[in-house]
Amino acid sequence: MRYYLEHLTTWPSLSYVAEDSKGRIVGYVLAKMVQDVGPDDEPHGHLSSVSVLRSYRRLGLAKKLVIQSQEAMAAVYKASYVALHVRTSNRPALSLYRDTLGFSLHVLKRKHYADGEDAYAMRLSLEH
Ligand SMILES: CC(C)(COP(=O)(O)OP(=O)(O)OC[C@H]1O[C@@H](n2cnc3c(N)ncnc32)[C@H](O)[C@@H]1OP(=O)(O)O)[C@@H](O)C(=O)NCCC(=O)NCCS
Description:
This protein is an alpha+beta fold. The chain has one domain (2-125): Gcn5-related N-acetyltransferase (GNAT) (Aminopeptidase, 3-Layer(aba) Sandwich), CATH 3.40.630.30. Helices cover 28% and strands 34% of the residues. Strands 1-2-3-4-6-5 form a six-stranded mixed sheet, sandwiched between helices. A hairpin with a 5-residue loop joins β1 and β2. The longest helix has 17 residues, at 61-77. Bound molecules: coenzyme A (COA). Coenzyme A (COA) is lined by residues 49-52, 57-63, 86, 90-93, 95-96, 99-100. This is Acyl-CoA N-acyltransferase. It comes from Auriscalpium vulgare.
């Protein structure tokens, strides 16, 4: 709960929900800024989580939610790029990030997740 609350109270313009016609939440994106960076890095956005209810998938909701968040990262916080981690086995998410949104592989992080799975660290420039 603390994790979600920190995102929503600190960077309220970066997280969004998708609702059905009755106002039920069917998808969300949770994102934040990484501003406390070293001399070799720039302030950037981080996509913490995105998920869409199974029966609402492949309708373009995740794409729309992520783009909305990226636009706010650039407009509100002047983020130069957005970063994320994704499980190497998560084919749908990989396709969304790489093929649809244009993210590139930055590094492979071995055993990044608590269960021992590797993660791809990916990035997308927000500068045009
Ligand atoms: C990954 C996820 C968020 C995608 O949500 P979605 O709303 O279905 O995605 P979109 O409709 O915006 O899809 C955009 C593109 O992503 C790719 N994609 C999405 N689902 C895919 C699948 N099951 N297989 C292959 N490619 C897929 C496609 O390129 C798709 O474009 P297309 O439909 O024109 O082919 C959804 O599958 C999900 O909630 N998964 C469980 C949670 C998760 O893994 N989140 C990501 C890690 S935090």
